Amino acid sequence: MARSLQKFQVGESGDGRHLIENARATGDPDYAIAVELFVAEEQNHARMLAHLLNAGGPGTKRSHWSDTVFVHLRRLMGLRLELMVLTIAEVVALRYYRALADGGRDSVLIDVAERILDDERHHVPFQCRRLRIGFQAIPTPARKVLRELWRLMAVAVIVVVAVDHGPALRACGVSRREFMADTVLIFCGILDRVFVPDRRTS
Question: Which of 17, 53, 56, 148 fits a 20 to 30 Å CA distance from 25?
Answer without folding.
Answer: 148
